[in-house]
Amino acid sequence: MNCPSVTQPAVLILLGPPGAGKGTQSRALERRFGLVQLSTGDMLRAAVKAGTPAGQAAQAVMEAGGLVSDAIVLQVLSERMADPDTGRGVILDGFPRTAAQAAALDGLLAARGQSVGAVISLEVDDDTMVARVSGRYTCATCGEGYHDTLKRPAMAGVCDVCGGTEFLRRKDDNADTARQRLDTYHAQTAPLIGHYQRAGVLQRLDAMQDIAAVSRDLEGMVRPVLRSRTP
């Protein structure tokens, strides 16, 4: 007797320094393919609010002024990936950041019968990233990202996605902070890239192109991963 094929959700990871366009491209992939972007911060806040076991553990650590451990983050991620809306696949945002976290993620996925389908590194120039980060802002209502020169709303002062008229700019989106964050990114991510390169799932994408071109190339990389999971 033949068993029916079991399709496992795709697991995608976008790598890239602050300002490389990970958020913009993740939202585009969500809309295009029905994937779910999983942000570490968003997942932790939702787990705390829902009072899940992992959320309670995270809340206790945060209230004590500590940093949430990788083990708790992985537990929160595991709980979130069990939700029905992740059935098509997920895009991980903000995790993993180190080779140790990547190895822990591999173990979590293996226990679920899954593996990372693709890790796409958005390759950019550091000086350009500083300029990008210094000019970006988001819609206060839906979180859609914009930039002073690279991506303005079609109608000045009105969000293209939700029509909101309030926008936010992070205080740390300035040149000095951007360079510090780039240094940290390069120090942490170099071994992470090596980890996924050895695993044979790393792809590199020229993110110095315009947003539409990056989206087109990214879709071309993601589509085969999703197709391979169709029984």
Describe this structure in words.
The protein contains 8 helices and 8 strands. It has 231 residues and is α/β, with parallel strands linked by helices. A hairpin with a 5-residue loop joins β5 and β6 (145-147). The radius of gyration is 18 Å and the shape is globular. The longest helix has 25 residues, at 175-199. The strands form 2 sheets. A 5-stranded parallel beta sheet has the order 2-3-1-4-8, sandwiched between helices. A 3-stranded antiparallel beta sheet has the order 6-5-7. It has helices at 22-33, 40-50, 53-63, 70-81, 99-111, 126-134, 175-199, 211-227, and strands at 10-15, 36-39, 89-93, 118-123, 136-139, 145-147, 167-168, 202-206.
Furnish the topology, listing elements before pairings.
Blueprint: E1 10-15, H1 22-33, E2 36-39, H2 40-50, H3 53-63, H4 70-81, E3 89-93, H5 99-111, E4 118-123, H6 126-134, E5 136-139, E6 145-147, E7 167-168, H7 175-199, E8 202-206, H8 211-227
Parallel strand pairs: 1-3, 1-4, 2-3, 4-8
Antiparallel strand pairs: 5-6, 5-7
Helix pairs in contact: 1-8, 2-3, 2-4, 3-4, 4-5, 5-7, 6-7
Task: Give a quick summary of the entry.
This protein is of the alpha/beta class. It contains 8 helices and 8 strands.
Distance between the termini: 17 Å
The major β-sheet equals: 5 strands, parallel
Strand order of the largest sheet: 2-3-1-4-8
**Outline:** globular
SSE run: EHEHHHEHEHEEEHEH
Mean pLDDT level: 89
Which oligomerization state do the chains in this entry correspond to? single chain
Q: Specify Rg, calculated over alpha carbons.
A: 18 Å
Number of strands: 8
Q: Give the helix level as a range of percent.
A: 40-55%
Binned strand content: 15-25%
Q: Helical segment tally?
A: 8
The poorly predicted ranges are 1-6
Classify the secondary structure makeup into a structural class.
alpha/beta
